[in-house]
Give the backbone structure.
Amino acid sequence: MGKVKVFGMTVMKDIAIAKSEFADGEKAITKIQDFTLDDELFKYCCLPEIVKYVENFTGPNIMAMHTMVIRNQLFFYFKNLFIFS
């Protein structure tokens, strides 16, 4: 599989993780933002389970959205605590 660039999508890496010896490449990615133009990721926005929760906040007339996925890095930080302790 190759890399696919999606116009407007932002992929962010945690600098501490990217510079460490414990995670490289995709493992250092902590946030993906503005993925509405990525067909595969946008499918998750249309899932009935997700739409149900959004409608609880906005009502049934959803007019706009902001897409962001944040990956929790607690495992990385706890792993380092035990290594350096």
Strands lie at 10-13, 29-33, 68-70. The chain has one domain: 10-84. The chain has a mean pLDDT of 77.
